[in-house]
Amino acid sequence: MKRTLLLVAVAALVCSGTAYGQRKAKRQTKKDVPTIVHSVEVKDIAEVVDSWVENEQKFEDQKLPAHATFIPYSSTSQMMQDKCYAMPWLTPERADYLLLNGEWKFRYTADWKQGKPEAKDFYADNADVSAWDNIKVPLNWEMAGYDVPVYNNVGYPFHNDPPRIKAMDDNFDKNPVGSYRRTFNLPEGWEKEKRVVLHFDGACSAIVVWVNGKYAGFSEGANTDAEFDVTALVRKGENNVSVRVYRWSDGSYLEGQDMWHLAGIHRDVYLMATPKVAVSDHYITSQLGKGYTAGSMNVELTVDNSLKQRASKTLEVELLDPAGQLVAKKQQAVALTAKDAQKTVSIDFEGLNDLKLWSSEHPWLYTVIVRQLNNGGEEMVFSTKYGFRNIEQKGNLVYINGKRVFFKGVNTQDAHPEYGRAIDMETMLRDVEMMKQANVNAVRTSHYPNVSRWYELCDSAGIYVMDEADCETHGLRGTLTSTPDWNAAFLDRAVRMAERDKNHPSIIFWSLGNESGFGANHAAMAGWLHTFDPTRLVHYEGAQTPYQPAKGLSEKNFDETDPACVDVMSRFYPRVKAEYLNPGVPEGSDKERAENARWEHLLDIAMRKNDNRPVLTSEYAHCM
Q1: d(C-alpha 121, C-alpha 244), whole Å
Q2: Residues annotated as catalytic (active site), given as ranges
Q3: Which of 121, 249, 416, 474 could make an SS bond with 206 (beta carbons 3.0 to 4.6 A apart)?
């Protein structure tokens, strides 16, 4: 049902932290970390795909592994002439990149279980959708008048019966799907010489994708990237892409955040092209010496050869200082056989001196250029902004580059009065400007990863980030995290977040999500993150053993501790020391709100003798 609406309210959370800790650990390479593979071959996708949206173990199909953000160019000169070389949050103009944002054809179906567009009238190569409506991408379809936004805090806007979706009898439609389609012209030469990848920054909550009538893949995870290899599906000249978006799926049980729930393609869609054998990922790590101005850097490159070709390439890495001057440069040859699906190359830079350090006050950024050569000539190049910084825990305090840090932070939520959860660059820039003006130096991406441009802005402006996985099961608390069948779905959300965002110096914390109880699946997420990246802190407010007055112990002498898999003790809305009183009761009364009876006081937690971890207030004020 199409309706006219104006979204006028957004939710905001504000947080501040006292300190956090950091363990020293050696760099771990990606080959030490287990890889999640989750794909099943089927003969007729159309016959089974509807069942996938109610199957917690089937959250992706033919989706490429997550990797650090990068945009490929054919030459260094093209890259350096592009305005996003200096400001990577901008849209590329000279890259091997084709943005598919803009006007798409669209048909809304209020209940897909009662029928929906299929091959002949939707995703077939010759399907005619000329009579369909037009819709902007990115945009949530509720903001275009289809169905209504659903605000939800505790619980779900459907019957609580995971992984099944049964709609509530309410004022919103039952089981909506949106069918999107558009045409595009493939850039010259891509159909012969390039590997072509179709990229989605985010769509809520599950998508099925076809290109020129052929199945490309399936994905769940509203706020994590999804990529599909469409090399064999595209052709010279005009092409078409069709996307079916399910508003609710089993993944929605992991997306029960306290927010406006909106559907559709709410983030960028684009194509990018690389050589058929090419660098597909890069992981930049560094270690600083005692004085913090000298150290080393490692760049680990993953070369993809999924087409199983025999090839020899030369990989070159340059490090440029903040003024653009060359600091160091190295090359390494790599040979692949037809049996090599991929290879990993590690390039070390030792003896780096006089480094300018990254911090909130002085966010100095170096440029790492990765160049792939074939027979001596450039065939692909990209760059990443990188900051050298050191994080240490000393007792229950944290130091960055040897200086104690106080975190004065806010929680963000993707909410725009006109675009829904599609946040434009003007709004992001204004948010950063207001944060800096208000002396805010930290942000928590509550409660899901943001678009990669946000982290690039935080890198540049000097804002510390708590990067949070798209995982909240408030309506079920700890049920799903303690259910083995949901383990892979939980873990996937941590893996895809960290793999994409690993090179951003602004990220200090990985967060396991929000308000989902605590159990084995959270412990698995934390274990993977610690193994993959021992340089950052793992946070999760739900990993706690609350103080219980009935035990007869004081808060300072409480005999239990929070689970060991998190690095900080995190709490919501606590008092510092004063007692909790019902605001409606006159001052001085000894009455207290029942729900506050278990809540601790920050100073007492910090003084516990059996736990020396930093104490963090990840939410302290909430307005609606």
Answers
A1: 13
A2: 515, 619
A3: 249
